[in-house]
Amino acid sequence: MDEGRRLTLPPTYGRAPVWLNDASAELWHSTPVKKTNGGVPLDTSQHSVINSFKMEQCTKSTPIPPDTRCHHSSLETEFPVSDQSGSTIQRQRRELQLLMAELKDRDRELNTMAASHHKQLLSWEQDRQKVLALEQKCARLDEELQKRNEVIRVLTKHVCVVETREEEVQKELRVAQQQLSELEQKKQNISQKCQDFEEKNQSLNSTVMALSTQVGSLQVREEELNSMLKLKDKDATEASSHILDLKGRLQDLDMSLTQSRSRESKLLRDLEENKRRYREAKHEVTHLKEELQQQVSHSSTQREEMIRLKQELQLLHRDLALSGEGDSWKDELLQLAHSKQERTMSELRCLQQVCENQRNDLQLLQLNLDSARESLKEKTSQGLLGREASVESVGTNKEQPSCSQSSEPKLNEAPDLLIPERQGPAERREHTPPQLKPRENHRMSSLYILSFSAHSQSKDSLQT
């Protein structure tokens, strides 16, 4: 019964079965090496299946000796295997191969995932270092921005102060222009006075000519008197005395004529000196106007340069905010500002020395003017006294009836009348120093304006 139930297998003729040949034909691959990153561990069931598969493969791979072939065939006859069990074994083998391939793929995927994860860790660490460096840089830039904001606030305050000073300078320039107009009016008044003095000089020349004609008439009268004295012997003593008096008066007239001529020459010299001083003053006024225009143009150019420097400073602030490389430019700008400050300070010192010299000259001129005014007052008082005395002498001489006595007061009146008239040009000579006063005032005002503008420019350069 048992034998009938057994299935007989075909003879193998010393060969292995077909399923054994198929299994031996397939190459067996060793298990995958463990990676350092760690792979997925195999299940216990899969491990047991692999071990059983190894055992079967070992039994298949070992050669069968010839003695045992018959015994093996007898075993095959004794233990027949159905086709269904062989197909299940083949299917299990195929599943095992598929599982091994899947395990290899999983191992590769895990290796790639571990490498990518390691790269991500490295990139994350680099990004973290970059973020820390950027945070430090941002903190440093915030501190620099705060400092720059403080500097900008200080600079805005300085700009406000400079604007107020500029307004004050403009006000002072307006005042100086008003003073210049006043000085021009004074100059016109002085020119009118010069014309008046010239007219007075012409009148004095006419009086000198009249006096010369009077001298000629007096000489004719003297001859007539001599003829009358010859005719009149009785009045010889009186005529001789009168002649002596007339001679003395003639000598006085000659002396007064010489004095008047000398005074006239002095007056002409003074007039030439006044004209020369007037020309010099006019030339100095034009020169000072040119200097003032140059200084105004220089101040305008410096203002334009200040505006340009402010724009450059704003651009530099922007560049410094974008990139922190501004220390070298800052040092160069500071050096330029220091050099400009030293140059302006030297110019200011020179201008201060010039102002001090001009002030000393002005004080000397003021002292000369005071002394001239005092002497003018004294001479005017003396001239008034002389005029009163001449008026009294004229009144007494008019009361005398004789011709000779009436002619003599005319001779006496001439020197007395000449004295106050000749004192007018002397007064003019004494009045000449005040003509220098407007010129000196104009010079001092212009120098003051120049020094103030230089001082303001130096302060502006210091602030920038």
Description:
- The chain is an all-alpha fold and 464 residues long.
- The chain folds into two domains: 2-131, no CATH class; 161-322 and 344-463.
- Helices cover 88% and strands 0% of the residues.
- The protein has helices spanning 2-5, 18-25, 44-61, 68-78, 83-231, 236-322, 327-399, 403-431, 436-463.
- Helix 7 runs antiparallel to helix 9.
- It is rod-shaped and about 215 Å long.
Summarize this, please?
This protein has 464 residues and is mainly alpha-helical.
Strand content: under 5%
Structural class: mainly alpha
Quaternary organisation: single chain
Largest sheet: none
Which value, in Å, is the CA radius of gyration? 67 Å
Q: Give the terminus-to-terminus CA distance.
A: 125 Å
Shape estimate: rod-shaped
Put simply, the count of helices is 9
The tally of strands reads: 0
Helix content: over 70%
State the low-pLDDT regions, or none: 1-81, 398-439
Average pLDDT for all residues: 71
Question: What is the total domain count?
Answer: 2
Order of helices and strands: HHHHHHHHH
Region (Disordered): 378-464
Biased composition (Basic and acidic residues): 424-443
Biased composition (Polar residues): 393-409, 453-464
Keywords: Coiled coil
